[in-house]
Amino acid sequence: MNISIIIPTLNEANYISQTIDRIRANQSKKSDIEIIVVDAGSRDDTVGLVTQKVNQVYEDSSLAGAKYKSLNQGAKLAKGAVLLFLDADTFLPPNFDKYVEEALSQHGVVGGAFEFGFDRKGIIYRMIQWVNRIRYRVDKRYFGDQGIFCSQKVFEQVGGYPNQPIMEAAYLCKALRKLGQLALIKVPIITSTRRFEQGNIFSVFLKDTWIWIQFTLGLNIKRYALAYWKENENGG
């Protein structure tokens, strides 16, 4: 299977090398994996660290503040039949490509994501992890740090990521579900807890939940985008 993995970055020098190394280590020998990094103007050494490790690096500082633009740009550059969108601080599990292939071979499945998991343990993180797992099992809209995937053809059919500066993954899932089912690979993808560590853990969780509730109710959440971006632009 030919898979293009698209990673949007902005000041990700602390994580990006590990993320890419984990991709190479955990892919099966049967798959052809293309890695595309779309950088939105990093001020650290993100680009320098990945240049020799990935297939393509695309740099454009005008993409800052709109993650969906970086993801769509990566999709335009992709040569693989399958697209997998990966956050820069998130590790794919061993044989991830086999799981993706198996998921997409199921009748009626047009895309999917991996089980959500944190890189740190502890009661609080376990609680947040399980709340999130219950949440996306109920409404079938996955988080961006779950490694959402679909075929290039289906991605083009839905018009790519919509023009939404926040919750872009949920909007994409909503569009994909109009064409078919989304599979959940019940093997955890491991994402960093850094957002919670940099802020008050309960405050961050409650804010995320509040935005998700308003999205679910169909309310306008764009007003939260600028504040969210400012909080996370330094590799958060």
TrEMBL record:
Q: Which GO terms describe its molecular function?
A: glycosyltransferase activity
Instruction: Give the location in the cell.
Output: Cell membrane
Q: What is its main location?
A: membrane
Q: What residues does the Glycosyltransferase 2-like domain cover?
A: 4-150
| UniProt superkingdom | Bacteria
Q: What is the protein name stated in its UniProt record?
A: Transferase 2, rSAM/selenodomain-associated
Q: Which UniProt keywords apply?
A: Cell membrane, Glycosyltransferase, Membrane, Transferase
Pfam families, per this entry? Glycos_transf_2
Q: Name one GO cellular component term.
A: plasma membrane
Q: Per its UniProt record, what InterPro entries does this chain match?
A: Glyco_trans_2-like, Nucleotide-diphossugar_trans, Trfase_2_rSAM/seldom_assoc
